[in-house]
Amino acid sequence: MAISFKDKIDPRGAYIAGSSGSPTYALSSELSPNEASAFISGVQSTQQNVPQVFQDTVQQEGSNLQVTKNPLREQLENLQNQDQAIDFINTLNQIDTGGTSGMGILQPEVLGFIKEPLAAIGAFTTDPTENRNVYQLLINKMFQGDRPQMSGAMPLRLEDVQGLNRIGRTLFSDPNKTSFFGDVKGLFTGNNPAVIDILTDTVGGGITELPEFGQAGLDFTKQQGFKDYGQIIQNLITGATPLKYGKLFFDKILDEEETPDETLNLDI
Asked: pTM to 2 decimals?
């Protein structure tokens, strides 16, 4: 719990206030540089393991010091779903953190700091049985390198399927448009107005885009000692089978349509 601490004589009181989490501190006068420095040092002592880009700052107005919460850190701490997480990832990647090739996420301390919040959010992709989290999607994207697309299932935008029922990898049905006669007609015509293919029937194409890290991302993963298990599995499959058929088999695993009936709970 934050405490209100003021000692007009000893700057150590200001340091204690800052290090205890006090959001404000009243100086004995506007000309109290020792007090101000002590309070700022106290605040900084609580952020020793926090990358600079996520650190709170201290502002002075007259004789009052105010801790300003870092908006990027607050965004990270309040992520609720994949859409929000990927928006955060794209925003962070554009900030100069000293990362590789100017990319904010390609910095070891930054990536380590965001790992736990991102790993707590389940991934929503073109695979209906997806069991990865957003952090794993992010690392997988880094492994893409200069290839046109990352391996495996692609992340979908939750906003585009809000209130819909999933019936396939990219197929969803609108319960407000579903009818018995419409479903029967669709069996013969192949056209059911209640069925939506998120890749072709939504404005943005359904796929939510992670940053394009290119070769810099692939180099970063190697420097950090990450393993591309998707590529390892592909190599095992294609390496144990004649090349042509092994590649076809692996592509089928990635692209095969699955159609489980499941209703999504996608609160945005």
From this structure: 0.76
